[in-house]
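cron nightly-structures :: item 1 of 1
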Amino acid sequence: MLFKNIKIVKNPFLLFSPFLLIYISLVLFLPTSGTSGDEPRYLMFAQNLLHGFYSLPAPGVDIGDGPGYPMIVMIFQALGLPLIFITLLNALLYYLSVVLLFKILRKIVSFRLTLIFALFWAFYYNSYENIPLILPEIFVAFLISLLVFTLSKTFDPENSKSKKYIYISGFIIGYIALTKVIFGYVLMLMLIGGTLVWIFNRQNLNYKKVVIIFLTALITSLPYLIYTYHITNKIYYWSTSGGDNLYWMSSPYEKEYGSWIQYPIDPRYEKKTIPGDDSVITKRHEKDFEEILKYKGTEKDHAYKRIALRNIRSHPVKFLENCFSNVSRMLFNYPYSYTQQKTITLSRFPLNGIIMVCILFSLIPTFLNWRKVIFPIRLLLFFTLVYLAGSTVACAETRMFTVIVPILLFWIA
């Protein structure tokens, strides 16, 4: 690279500063009203925290999301700042995630590759739609980038301060789980798996570090889990939304692809039904919801799961088809049940298509040289695999994939 010795190029904060301006411009030109998608729910949970509680008590328990992101939003609300300051934080965090990826890669690959992959993440416009919104995806993507950085430090044999990064990494994973509850199950599976591997490889210091990292993550999330136990009387209970997602994923009906549907139907969603039969969703699901809506809180969650498991046992092939559709939604935001096709969907294909091709080409050298691959990459690949496997059986969208892209770029590079 002809200019790699120039000061501005060697300083990633300066090098990627134009992207910070781009991200800030997105926030300023697309100011949030706090009413789009899931924004009202996160604002509500933040307000709840300010008033000294998170969810209503039983039987009306509502913990659809973890408190990680609402705790951040709460700070802005406590200071009385306009909503745009929350989304300006998104712009800053996405910029910092690009800088972190650059700093990580600079240690292990050439400057040219470092710049290419950092620029790919900086230009990853699939994430741009979340920057002007009060949603946790940008925050989680930043935490994932930070985790890659701290794990690289943790398992660097030349790093004399690796011990502190063990606990920092554990705290980050715990906070990711508090923000995206699916990572709570990833955390536990990684802890169990890491412990079993360490038991049979007691001399391997890396496996011991893995156990300490995920144990620290569990301890970080423990106050929330104690709270959910207090209001639900259920151990290791993360969210009341799992059953709802699993129910729609288990749908056995034709032209339903496992995507989440608002029910009972309101006018916005009634217009999305199959042409010529505006009541098709009601006809198909009314009987199930007569049972589900008898309950509230955790009991309602279990009613969803009970019917979902019944659907899966009765129609296993259709469930697998819905899982395949779910993978497609994570990558390309298609297909959705009862939804008109949109040309904007085509914009998902180029970037995620490139990533998928690179993943396929990276699998062979990774398997052939598994023992030579640096330990943080191996650990992060297992972490990502468990997360994506879990996401496959729950209703997912593209934003569920974008948060994990920094890990994939780290591995591919």
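cron nightly-structures :: done
Residues 266-276 have pLDDT under 50 and may be disordered.
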